Amino acid sequence: MGMSKRIARSLSIAAVLVVLASGCGTGATDELDALRTETNEVIAGLETDLAARDTTITDLAAELETAKDDASALGEEVTRLSVSLTEAESARDQAVAEAAAASAREQELLVTYDSEIRAEAQTAWDAEVASACADAGAGSGAIVSYVTHTDQLAVIGTRAELVDAVTVCAQPLRDRSADEKLDADCSPGDPDALTRGTSDFVGDCLVMFVVPFQWDSRTGECNFLGSWDSSNLGTRSYRYDGDGLFQAGPAVCSNDLDGADQDDLLKVWVDVVGTYSYDTAAGGTNAVPQFTIVKAQLVSKA
Description:
The chain has a five-stranded mixed barrel. With 302 residues, the chain is an alpha/beta fold. It has a domain at 184-300: CATH 2.40.50.140. Helix 1 packs antiparallel against helix 2. The protein has helices at residues 3-23, 26-138, 151-154, 159-174, 178-185, 191-196, 250-255, and strands at 187-188, 205-214, 223-229, 242-248, 265-279, 285-300.
């Protein structure tokens, strides 16, 4: 039953009670009192129920106002985010347009300067191949580890293509025999330049022809003083411009110098060690380049 109907019924009962009370006897009065008590209880209950509902309505009204405030704040946040999104999309579109313009400009420059760029890149490519080839040919590591690929070199080819080019060059160098490597590593010596500045050549490998002019107990079995030049000038030591001390280790001494004697003509591959000073028969001193023999060949006997 609805609250309004319950209130109306209670009021009707109360009115009836008033009428009945005015025209009834004692028995009726008792019955009316009981009915009045029941009616008062119903009214009291209805008033309590009505008060609770009023509180609920008040709370709901407050929640509604809060929800309206939250909805308003949310709407403002949505508006702000929409504006930010629009601005971000605009900035993105502008950046895309600028990138496209830069790319187009780059292509124009490449077309304009392509020949010059490629020429410079090709020079750099060739230099890298030569350098990496020399290092990889003399080394034992993976050939790719000797290769450096740059953006400039990318104009000519990829890293894989560069590694292939170096491999084609370096692998034959790695496959050479020890003698072939020695021939490749050693260069002809210049007697004048070496005598004037021996220290500038320390560590270099040289190939030369030499005629021993002192090879005796004073020099030792594996060492001798000799006259040398980069060319074969025969067995006459006076024809050679350079002098030096030549020293050989046990293996080279027993294998390569076996059968060779003073005044013979030898072809030798040597490492420059430094300068050697010795006493002359006339009582003075003489300084000559000092060499370690890596390999020796007997060219002709004296």
